[in-house]
Design brief:
It is a single chain. This protein is mainly alpha-helical. The chain has one domain. Helix content is 62%, strand content 9%. The protein has 3 helices and 2 strands; from the N terminus they run αβαβα. A two-stranded antiparallel sheet has the order 1-2. The protein starts with a helix and ends with a helix. The structure holds zinc ion. Keywords: Membrane, Transmembrane, Transmembrane helix. This is Secreted protein.
């Protein structure tokens, strides 16, 4: 029984990962969670724009850049 669950669990993880990366590709930017006071003092993560690149999209950009070489 347990042996049959492992491929299903792996498939689920792969589907979630692919879905997340697809989501990051379509919507690469997310709102910065920092408070407005921190934005006033210049936020390093979003350069005080309030939006920042998702970690998944950064990963995709990294993979794309690595493939070019
Ligand atoms: Zn910020």
């Amino acid at each position: 029984m347990l042996v049959g669950l492992i491929p299903a669990a792996v498939l689920l993880v792969v589907l979630v990962a692919v879905g997340y990366l697809a989501w990051c590709w379509v919507f690469p930017f997310t709102r910065c969670r920092h408070s407005s006071e921190r934005h006033f003092l210049r936020c390093r993560r979003c350069q005080s724009t309030g939006t920042r690149l998702r970690a998944g999209r950064r990963l995709l950009n990294h993979i794309r850049a690595a493939r070019r070489h």
